[in-house]
Design goal:
Length: about 450
């Protein structure tokens, strides 16, 4: 649907690609620019549209409408957001934020192309020159994102609004809620061998020395870190103490300047950490994470222990809830009698798509109150291997949504719809108040907003 292009995640992906294309175009110097649109004092070039079109085709992106028209409208909306953000004294993009995002972008290029040297060869420019050309585009990207968030940040929905909206839906508009499961779990984490612990620590000390000798921390993170932040050069963003592993936080909050920590052990594995920035009671850090590998013998021990516990539960020697509180390694569910909470909705209900794959293939074959055999999985928080047994607490079959059972899902859907309406209204007002001119070659575009061409 065309309105989908205005959702936040699509905007983020759109501008990441755009930033990449700006540098790539500067390296190629083959496209002759032509102004196709003016929004206030900002211009949109034909080369911007053409390069984005080529990139989306290469990625297999398809659309029901005219892709070039949709790309142009993305740029038009972005220009409105940036122009308003620059007038808003409460919206600020600091050099530190720009530098952080640049590091993340460059780390993405290194991950995609292979090394910093390969990136320089690809763009035919030095890293310093690439950063210089990225800076303004990244600043605008951050301004646009902040402005969009500000426009919808105060949008809320009340229970009465949710009820009114639901009761006014046509029958065909009422969403179908897929089959949902509620379950509890007990997890055992295999013990890591001392020799493997020492191997990982030695490897991280070597990486630390390479960085201190001149290698880029971001590049080392891309090449060696086992954290999802690797693609961003190891940067994890601003975090308070409570948001971080206690051992990680103790070191991160005591780092100064760009010094690199000694090896730190956390629940996730082993790290070396570098401070990026401090802001109030939060720190922004980058790290390289390496996880010790679990031996086959250690896995067998964990499996057998958990299997014995499962048999005791089935024989009514110990209740599942009590066993979870006493024996489970998972701190998030241990104090909740093993009940697993869906992080997307903060309820105990999961659709099959929301379950971890290792759990979904087991739970769909189980009956309510059944205890599974132990199976290997990956801990959602630490991403380390664990063994689990699960108990199905409840299964709700697929059904048309209703207020009694599905209020939270309906509230989320209506909130998204309401935010979209507020944002669309803002765009329409800005169109009326802003000088906009679009080249006649785009006059027949079926834009989502009607007033681009005046």
């Amino acid at each position: 649907m065309k309105t989908e292009i205005y959702k936040a995640m699509k905007f983020t992906g759109f501008f990441l690609i755009a930033a990449f294309l700006v540098i790539k175009a500067a390296a190629q110097d083959k496209v002759v620019d032509q102004i196709v649109a003016i929004v206030g004092g900002n211009i949109i070039l034909k080369s911007d549209i053409e390069r984005m079109h080529i990139e989306q085709q290469a990625q297999g992106v398809t659309t029901e409408g005219d892709m070039k028209c949709e790309i142009l409208e993305n740029f038009l909306v972005d220009k409105l957001l940036v122009a308003e953000a620059e007038l808003d004294t409460l919206i600020e993009v600091t050099p530190s934020q720009v530098n952080q995002r640049m590091d993340q972008q460059l780390a993405m290029y290194v991950s995609y192309i292979g090394s910093e040297k390969a990136v320089e060869e690809y763009f035919k420019k030095s890293i310093v020159e690439i950063k210089a050309e990225m800076r303004e585009g990244i600043r605008n990207q951050l301004l646009s994102q902040q402005m969009r968030e500000k426009i919808v940040k105060d949008v809320t929905v009340t229970p009465s609004e949710v009820r009114y909206n639901f009761r006014n839906l046509k029958d065909e508009e009422i969403p179908t809620i897929p089959t949902q499961y509620e379950y509890a779990q007990i997890t055992f984490q295999p013990v890591i061998d001392l020799e493997e612990d020492n191997r990982i620590k030695s490897r991280l000390r070597d990486i630390k020395k390479r960085i201190e000798d001149g290698s880029s921390f971001a590049t080392m993170a891309v090449l060696y870190s086992e954290c999802p932040s690797a693609k961003d050069g190891g940067v994890i963003g601003y975090s308070g103490r409570a948001e971080l592993d206690p051992a990680y936080a103790a070191v991160a909050f005591n780092l100064k300047d760009d010094r690199i920590s000694n090896v730190v052990r956390s629940a996730f594995g082993y790290h070396i950490i570098q401070l990026v920035d401090k802001k109030g009671d939060k720190v922004n850090t980058r790290h390289v994470l390496m996880k010790p590998k679990v031996s086959v013998e250690a896995k067998e021990v964990a499996y057998n222990r958990l299997d014995s516990l499962a048999k005791m539960i089935r024989n009514n020697e110990i209740p599942f809830e009590e066993a979870a509180q006493v024996f489970s390694f998972d701190k998030n569910t241990r104090n909740n009698s093993g009940v697993v909470i869906n992080p997307n909705t903060m309820s105990s209900k999961f659709s099959v798509e929301e379950l971890d794959p290792d759990v979904s293939k087991i739970i769909t074959k189980m009956n309510v109150n059944e205890i599974s055999m132990p199976f290997e999985s990956i801990d959602r928080d630490t991403q380390l291997p664990v063994f689990k047994i699960i108990k199905v607490l409840k299964k709700t079959d697929a059904h048309k949504a209703n207020l009694q059972n599905d209020y939270q899902k309906l509230a989320e859907m209506y909130l998204m719809k309401k935010k979209e309406g507020v944002f669309n209204e803002w765009v329409s007002k800005q169109q009326a108040a802003t000088y906009i001119r679009i080249d006649l070659t785009y006059a027949n575009c079926n834009f989502n907003f009607n007033n681009w061409i005046k």
